[in-house]
Amino acid sequence: MIDVPPEFIPSQLLTCESVSQRSRKLLEQSGHALTEQNRAEAERCALDALNASRRLGKMVDHAVALIYLADIYRSVGRLGPALEYNEKAQQMLKNQPGPLYYHNRAVADYALGLTHHMLGNDSKALDWYEHAQDLFKRANLHWGIEGDRKRQEQCTRVIRWIDVLITNIAEQGATPLDTPFLNLIWLPVFPLRGGEVGYSMAEWEVTECLVARELKIEGKPFCPYSVTGKRKTALKLKVSAKHFVLKVLEDNWNDLPAETGDYLLIRLDTQRRPGPGVVWLAEDEEWAFGEFKRDATTGKIRFEPQKPYVIGADAPRGPIIAILKPIPPAP
Predict the structure, then answer these.
(1) Is residue 56 located within the same domain as residue 187?
(2) Cβ contacts of 148 within 8 Å, gap of 6 or more
């Protein structure tokens, strides 16, 4: 379980100005009862608000009541109903137009991430946390324009709290090597421009789809950044997908915020889908692609080419998942 501070309980973050007076009063009673640990009364009031929203036909009222109910069920470990209500609320609010709804949409995404986190669905939790942070930032700008300092400060605090949750997920992903469900991904590393193709061992500890915060290439630690240059607290990597790494040999290659000595982590995609952040390798060079595998008997690592890729035909290409930047040694 996650000990969520009272100020960060999703239902306590909602803005209810657009909620009908009847539903708002019932939800205030529900929130107060939950704070007093009177969950039966909290559930009764939230259900009354839900029924009132149905009679009125007000979607926002309905979604807000669902978030209150999900909080109640999450607090007693009934994560199945909590997830169902969070998903319904998120679907109802995601299409609400305009800046007025950024805040409640952010709360719905955050609540859904919280429930997935408690269920152990770390990859989905990370997705929803990131969505929520983006919306809270947009809501923060909206409240600034409206001159609502209190709501701005609330958005800032929630963004920092979600950072704590994301860090928790990342630290759980950094599992010791003797953990049974740990997977090691071995990645071939290519030079980005000319010269002989060299193979380096890139080791990443992966738990399900969640990647630890550091990648080791030839024993040196790297941390992931987005293609816009933003530091990633954690990074998802599908174990079933194939990846390769390109070494950057010149600064600002292809207008990316990458420097000499950085690496590009790329997910292989043989479909021709040009677009931002997609690597297309030079057409006059040959490249090898394969997998690093550990020999179960000797423990040695070997590179096994799978198929010779000829650039221009079946060249390795795909979207950049992250820019990997070296972590400087501790002083």
Answers:
(1) no
(2) none
In whole angstroms, give the CA distance from residue 156 to residue 106.
Answer: 12
User: Is residue 177 included in any domain, yes or no?
Assistant: no
Residue 320, token pair as written in the block: 């950049």
CB 25 within 8 A of CB 13: no
> Are 279 and 321 members of one domain?
yes
pLDDT at 13 over 60: yes
**What integer pLDDT is reported at residue 5 of this predicted model?**
85
How many whole angstroms separate alpha carbon 301 and alpha carbon 266?
A: 21
Q: Show the beta-strand stretches assigned E in the chain.
A: 182-187, 189-191, 202-207, 210-211, 215-217, 220-225, 235-236, 243-247, 263-267, 278-280, 286-287, 290-294, 301-305, 309-310, 317-326
Residues recorded for the chain? 331
Same domain, 146 and 201: no
Domain encompassing residue 156:
6-172
d(CA 204, CA 206): 6
Do 254 and 313 reside in the same domain of the chain?
yes
Distance between CA atoms of residues 38 and 75, nearest Å: 11
Confidence of residue 119 (pLDDT cuts 50, 70, 90): confident
Confidence (pLDDT) at 212: 52
DSSP state of 229: S
